Amino acid sequence: MSNIDYIIVGLGNPGKNYENTRHNSGFKALDFIADRLGVSINREKFKSLVCEARLKEKKVLLLKPQTYMNLSGQAVVEAMNFYKIPPENVLLIFDDISLPVGKIRIRKSGSHGGQNGVKNIIAMSGSDKFPRVRIGIGEKPNPSWDLADWVLSKFPKSETESINEALCDVYSAAEMIVGGEIESAMNKFN
User: Fold this and answer.
1) Residue 23 bears catalytic tag
2) In what order do the strands lie in the sheet with 132-136?
3) What is the pLDDT of residues 116-134, one digit of tens each?
4) Which member of 23, 64, 119, 134 is catalytic?
5) Domain spans, the chain
6) Which residues are 176's β-sheet partners?
């Protein structure tokens, strides 16, 4: 069994119809990290697609739950239990409608903030001590819009540059967090 120091989780929904949606920003960020590290997230384990990589001298497991967003805890807790990883060493990356498109926010721990994937992870693990990187996907342009329709919409070309910049920031933040510099990451990106 390989020794994993850190689990980096990108939250999203599996399937072609969810690709490139706002709600899949966590998957998109994890794919970006994998690409930068020269690995592919293509092995099935823990109800997820996973791969191992090295980041900041640490052995990390990149994990994309395939349970659908609202049941993300099943996959995350299974991997945590298998590798005996504490919540403090599980970085969650996910979308946030309360942030402008392309902005990121880092927290050491805290509530789920209405994000159902995080809510399920906290409920199933019994802890809220997960470091997290939230990726801004923007709020609904119109209050009458259905929230599900909004988060499952795709980014228009006009927002592509902002999202690509955010992915670079998420990668840098992940490096800092895994390297034990979460305070520095928060100071730099928040």
Assistant:
1) yes
2) 43-45, 48-55, 58-65, 6-10, 90-96, 132-136, 104-107
3) 999 999 999 999 999 999 9
4) 23
5) 6-189
6) none
